[in-house]
Amino acid sequence: MRDVAAAAAPTGPRVLPRNDPRQYDDLAGEWWRPDGAFAMLHWLAEARAAMVPPATHPDALLVDLGCGAGLLAPHLAGKGYRHVGVDLTCSALVQAAEHGVRVLQADVTAIPLADGCADVVSAGELLEHVPDWPRAVAEACRLLRPGGLLVLDTLNDTALARLVAVRIAERLPTVPRNIHDPHMFVDDRALVAECARHGVDLRLRGIRPEVGALVAWLLRRARASRAPGAAAAGRVPRMVPTRSTAVLYQGLGVRRG
Length: 257
Prior knowledge:
Elements: H1 2-8, H2 22-26, H3 39-49, E1 61-65, H4 73-76, E2 82-87, H5 90-98, E3 102-105, E4 118-124, H6 133-143, E5 144-155, H7 159-168, H8 188-197, E6 200-209, H9 211-226, E7 239-242, E8 248-255
Parallel strand pairs: 1-2, 1-4, 2-3, 4-5
Antiparallel strand pairs: 5-8, 6-7, 6-8
């Protein structure tokens, strides 16, 4: 009977709770697929890297918190930084190392790096996944040298963000199902205040994908799902600034002396 029950058990993808880190192991093959489940993370990485200036000295260090599989790396090429990536997921860190990132498996609320070691700290699409996001902010600020830059993007704690990022986006091929817990979204004013407490003056702006390019990308994805292998190359959506920070926003901060 036990063998019969085992044979009858469903063998499809496991269903995990929202924001469960094990999802990143299940989706390990998606990181570097241009039209895969993490496609929007590529667009966000490009927009985040655009806020990072060229390094000003030979040993400049950029610490990439929640680095995943190292999607930021191609967009930093030629800027002159030593790129250290911090993440909990081993399967992602293996891929990050293959793309030239020096990897460190650690919790972003307790990073084993020295105070003031970093010229730039990146925290992309990270804070809304951390149960104690103020502690992660404290660590990011601690790592920065005076004059160092904090660059980040995250989802705001608003009804509109929950509608767009969860109810709508998770029904499109732009965001994996259950990847976010909307109760963990980060209020923009609270984030600015928390950074200020740790000596970083943070300025925010809203961002969103280009609408026309996003629609064209979704149509290409729909055609590919009906006829695998038939998708034609097209323009990749870019993230563009918007006045409202109510859904997705970027931050650029400077560590005071």
